[in-house]
Write a structure and sequence with these properties.
- With 87 residues, this protein is an alpha+beta fold.
- Helix content is 18%, strand content 46%.
- A hairpin with a 2-residue loop joins strand 1 (3-21) and strand 2 (24-38).
- The two termini are 23 Å apart.
- 2% of the residues are buried.
Length: 87
């Protein structure tokens, strides 16, 4: 399988029930979706990082930079073998 194209989509998704923490109340969930297109198909992934590095040092903008600056250049255009679980 070879990655041909990757799109990073950052969107705000309304939350059905407000999420309350000691940091405040959230009414929207900011999400980073990754859409990968390969020579054999396509797939979607979601980054679970928060918008800001408050609870954890990982955050959406940082995650997007790691993906675009470090991971994608090493994967794009290369032949990648995906392991399969044996049941």
């Amino acid at each position: 399988m070879k990655i041909e194209r990757v799109e990073l989509l950052r969107m705000h998704v309304p939350i059905k029930v407000p999420f309350r923490t000691s940091y405040g109340t959230s009414y929207l969930h900011e999400v980073l979706w990754i859409h990968a297109i390969t020579d054999t198909g396509e797939g979607w992934a979601e980054c679970a990082a928060e918008p800001r590095p408050e609870y954890s040092s990982e955050y959406l903008t940082g995650a997007a930079e790691v993906i675009t600056e470090f991971l994608l250049p090493k994967l794009t255009g290369r032949d990648i073998e995906i392991g399969r679980a044996h049941v």
